[in-house]
Every structure is written in structure tokens, then in C-alpha cells.
Design a protein that fits this description.
Length: 83
């Protein structure tokens, strides 16, 4: 489910950039790709957490993801206010 959402949002941002050539949308798309990669890493760490003590690593990545997601949403909100 989450992977599907990542793909859909990523594709939407990429298509939006290709149509509008808006640099802020491109920036958002590139950040979102990094966010999706980080989520994949977190899921892997949580899967392994039952076998080892990788929860701290996952926690640090979650904080980084939250920061990046906040940046993307601020950029997109600013674009929405301009429209």
C-alpha cells in the first residue's frame, strides 16, 4: 500500500514537472524520490528489528524522512498559493 502511494505521488510530481517545467515541482519530485528510498530502508530495518537491534537506525532515518517530507510539503504549498 505505502509503496503504491510512493509510486503514484512520485509519478504525479514527475508528470507535473514535465508539463509545467516548474523548478520547484522538480525539486519536490527529486526530494520525494529520496524520501521513498529512505522509507524502503526503514521498512527493511523494521523487518530485521525482530532479529537484531536496528530500531535506533530506523528511528534516525524516520526523523530524516519527516524533515524531507516537511520540506516537500512546504514547497508544494507555496506553489499552490501562487496558483
Amino acid at each position: 500500500m505505502v509503496r503504491c502511494l510512493e509510486i503514484c505521488i512520485g509519478i504525479s510530481l514527475k508528470e507535473s514537472f514535465e508539463i509545467t517545467e516548474n523548478a520547484e515541482i522538480e525539486k519536490s519530485y527529486k526530494l520525494f524520490v529520496k524520501i521513498a528510498e529512505s522509507w524502503k530502508e526503514v521498512f527493511g530495518l523494521f523487518f530485521k528489528a525482530g532479529e537484531s537491534k536496528k530500531i535506533k537506525n530506523a528511528s534516525e532515518i524516520l526523523v530524516d524522512i519527516a524533515d524531507k517530507e516537511q520540506k516537500v510539503m512546504k514547497i508544494l504549498l507555496a506553489i499552490g498559493k501562487l496558483a
